[in-house]
Design goal:
Layout: E1 4-10, H1 17-25, E2 32-39, H2 45-55, E3 59-64, H3 69-79, E4 84-87, E5 93-94, H4 98-109, E6 113-121, E7 125-128, E8 135-137, H5 142-146, E9 151-152, E10 157-158, E11 167-170, H6 171-180, H7 189-200, E12 204-215, H8 229-243, H9 251-272, E13 296-300, H10 304-313, E14 320-325, E15 339-340, E16 352-355, H11 360-372, E17 380-382, H12 388-395
Helix pairs in contact: 3-6, 6-7, 8-9, 9-12
Length: about 400
Amino acid sequence: MPKLSVIIPVYNTVNYLSKCLDSVLSQSFQDIEIICVNDGSTDNSPQILERYAVKDSRVRIIHKPNGGLVSARKAGVREAKGKYIGYVDSDDWIDPTMYETLYNCAESNQADMVSSGYFFEGNYITVHYDGVPEGLYDAKSIGSLREKAIYNVETRDVGIRSSLCCKLFLAEKFRAVQLSIPEEISMSEDKLCVISFLLSCSRVYVQWKAFYHYIIHRESMVNMPDCRYLLKVNAVYQYLITLYGHPFFTKTMRLQAELYITEMLYKGINSRLGFENRDLFWVDPYWLNGIPHGSKVALYGAGGLGHAYKRQLGSRGDLTYAGCTDFGWEKFKGGPMEVIPPEDLPQTGYDVLVITIKNPGKAQEVRRQLEGIGIPGHKILWFEQKEIYWKYAEVNGWIK
């Protein structure tokens, strides 16, 4: 019997699958079985799986009709023989020591779950950890962790990161939780699974280490408009309602669950529903008050925030748009905004350069890079963009 079962749901990821499998097979922790669930792929993913299964006996393949991520995960969990269960998405990859580190941590702390961080790789790379202190949460402290499962309201951040893929679970306790998630749920399935598991387990270890590389692809369904988005949010809400009666599901957890639904609705209006007017609530135009009268304004960043800043510039007739730049400028070729390398931005052509990145840590990193190539620090501006749902919570008085 293997010590660890790694479950990899696979659906049409032929361009990324080999890198994913190689990263799992090359783990320093070798006592694993790798359960690849082919969820009705229509590309050459099944052929790739078969080749790997021939090369390494630890690879097992389950073929099933397409049923979605939850369905594929359930199929893998039913077949898993390991003491612990982990997940990897088939278009991502992991560092070589990930499972050795998580397994040793689980064993030495008798933990039902070990949670770690991940690298988020899209237009730029950021690293994310759980928004709670590192360490063991046992019978005396698991209650406080549950109340931060969705948000850590003190820091205005998430509590436990949603992704199942950067975690390790004790199979005997986790299996029933995974099987309880309705298959029709097609968003926030990870979040619901984590919340449910925290209600049934008693020892959790949080590590502020990152091993998992979560890759964002432009063709990802998450980035596509979805007119059924509100129906999907409702399915999440209906599941959360079933947890309200659990003896460990506190009033604080319910308030956070409702705030989470508010956040999802807010995101839907901004970007998920496919509205012609995007980002209606995402970007507060207060930042324009910080721009000196008559300035020529250049923007750093050609993502959604950059587009919103450019639109809002038009409301100040005294300001002039002076162009857009980004260190990853090549990724935006052919896009709606003409983007040039920061080195090519003529300093005489603008008065201020506004960084249009929401993440404060990444914004500061970009500031340092810009100053490193000679752009004067006094010309670089960044404005915090607070999420509107935090304002909602503050106005209603349940957080300070």
